[in-house]
């Protein structure tokens, strides 16, 4: 069903209509997917006899932050799509553990659970994410099973709702005004991958994080030597404004 929804939608009522169906976009992509049957002579793999039964209480809401925080292009996606992609990234990150295994994942998002069980729905972005999940599980020969857990019984839910000063950043409008007046900036002194500002080309500014992150240029700005040629930007957590100002004065920046 995940790979035939556009075909069904385009051919619905076709016998009673003379209209032509344009094979473009998502419909064309879906039809091209099935072309593998023209030359495929393989078979589906079964689980190994000594199957590893991996029971992952994957609390997907917190994984959204941990696994997807460095990908800025996912920040505007609906939460249900983020949770699906978080599951995909989690499986890909731990391939050795979930290969040839059954994986039970807990989620408190009924839309995600029901769309997976029904093999898709009306949300095109979610359908694309579910396809990635299916393809990842198929490549790993893993049987994935989603189970519902209420938010009240989800130990990962409360921490994900707590705001931290590490997550603070200027609004998009304020950042644009700042760039016009003082930019272009070349470096963001204190940030995470999730809230680092972007340059005029839409790329994330180089930044120093309090701990290692995939896209940071270093850890702990106070341990860095910053060139005076840099046009630095900084929006520090409130508790380190004083120490940071002293550091900048000592560095003559």
The description of the largest β-sheet is:
4 strands, parallel
Q: Reading side by side through the largest sheet, how are the strands ordered?
A: 6-5-4-7
Q: How much is the average pLDDT?
A: 77
Task: Sum up the overall morphology in one term.
Answer: elongated
Number of helices: 10
Number of strands: 7
Q: If you compute it from the alpha carbons, what radius of gyration comes out, rounded to the nearest whole angstrom?
A: 24 Å
Give the ordered list of helices and strands.
HHEHHHEHHEHHEEEEH
What class do helices, strands and sheet pairing give? alpha/beta
Distance between the termini: 59 Å
Helix content percent band:
25-40%
- Beta-strand percentage? 5-15%
Low-confidence parts, pLDDT < 50 over ≥5 residues? 48-70
Task: Explain what the structure shows.
By secondary structure, the protein is α/β, with parallel strands linked by helices. It is 37% helix and 11% strand. The strands form two sheets. The chain has a four-stranded parallel sheet, with no helix packed on it. Strands 1-2-3 form a three-stranded parallel sheet. α4 (79-93) packs parallel to α7. The longest helix is centred in the middle third of the chain and has 17 residues, at 124-140.
Concise structural overview:
The chain is an alpha/beta fold.
Secondary-structure topology with pairs:
Blueprint (H helix, E strand, L loop, with lengths): L4 H7 L13 H9 L18 E4 L4 H9 L10 H15 L1 H4 L2 E7 L2 H8 L6 H17 L2 E6 L8 H4 L11 H11 L4 E2 L17 E4 L8 E2 L12 E2 L7 H10 L3
Parallel strand pairs: 1-2, 2-3, 4-5, 4-7, 5-6
Helix pairs in contact: 1-2, 3-4, 4-7
């Amino acid at each position: 069903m995940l790979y035939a929804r556009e075909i069904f939608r385009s051919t619905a009522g076709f016998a009673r209509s003379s209209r032509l169906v344009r094979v473009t976009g998502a419909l064309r992509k879906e039809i091209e997917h099935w072309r593998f049957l023209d030359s495929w002579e393989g078979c589906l793999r079964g689980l190994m006899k000594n199957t590893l039964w991996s029971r992952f209480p994957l609390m997907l809401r917190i994984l959204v932050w941990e696994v997807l925080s460095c990908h800025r292009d996912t920040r505007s996606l609906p939460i249900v799509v983020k949770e699906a992609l978080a599951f995909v990234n989690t499986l890909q990150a731990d391939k050795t553990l979930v290969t040839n295994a059954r994986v039970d994942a807990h989620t408190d998002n009924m839309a995600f659970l029901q769309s997976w069980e029904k093999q898709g729905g009306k949300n095109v972005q979610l359908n694309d994410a579910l396809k990635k999940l299916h393809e990842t599980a198929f490549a790993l020969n893993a049987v994935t099973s989603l189970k519902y857990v209420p938010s009240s019984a989800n130990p990962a839910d409360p921490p994900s709702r707590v705001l931290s000063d590490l997550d603070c950043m200027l609004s998009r409008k304020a950042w644009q005004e700042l760039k016009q007046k003082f930019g272009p900036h070349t470096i963001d002194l204190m940030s995470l991958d999730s809230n680092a500002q972007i340059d005029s080309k839409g790329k994330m500014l180089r930044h120093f994080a309090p701990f290692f992150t995939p896209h940071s240029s270093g850890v702990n700005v106070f341990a860095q030597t910053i060139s005076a040629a840099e046009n630095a930007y900084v929006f520090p957590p409130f508790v380190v404004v004083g120490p940071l100002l002293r550091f900048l004065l000592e560095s003559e920046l």
